[in-house]
Amino acid sequence: MTDEMLQQWVERVSLQFFGRPFIHKATFNGRLKATGGRYFTKSHNIEISPHQLAAFGEEETEKIIKHELCHYHLHLMRRGYRHRDADFKLLLKQVGGSRYCRTLPEREERRRLPYKYKLVCRNCGMEYLRKRKVDPAKYVCGKCRGKLLIKSLDIPDRP
Ligand SMILES: [Zn+2]
Ligand SMILES: [Zn+2]
């Protein structure tokens, strides 16, 4: 799918679900990996991740487009356009947009990794779980600022 096709798609969704035209630019951005889309408050342009389309298909991508259009129209109408705003939440529900600028699978995968290490405070004994090995010298205890040491949790990858 080309940027031009995306532009037409966004314009169509805008008229159909919001009853207002989308008069700015919508483009694909291959560097968008963490989120499905982005809305720029300065330029009013929208970017959509092509990975989103590849991973979830057109139906899910249209929900992302609706999500970004909620930011867009509310911002232009000078209403609450941020995720936490009641205006945003209500409009998103009305048009059936995706709840979040959806996370792509690679990111979810990373989050599901088990904890393999813990940092233990030498001073107060507070423990901090870590998924990857880190250098304990680079951190201090969040509670007492004490020095930390790292311990393996010894969880085998497969039982
Ligand atoms: Zn958003
Ligand atoms: Zn401590």
From TrEMBL:
Q: Record keywords: Metal-binding included?
A: yes
Domain annotation SprT-like: ranges = 4-151
**Subcellular localization:** Cytoplasm
InterPro entries associated with the record: SprT-like_domain (IPR006640), SprT_Zn_ribbon (IPR035240), Uncharacterised_SprT-like (IPR023524)
Task: List the cofactors.
Answer: Zn(2+)
- Residues annotated to bind Zn(2+): H67, H71
- Output the NCBIfam families linked to this UniProt entry: PRK04351.1 (NF003339)
Q: Which family does it belong to?
A: Belongs to the SprT family.
Name-wise, this protein is Protein SprT-like
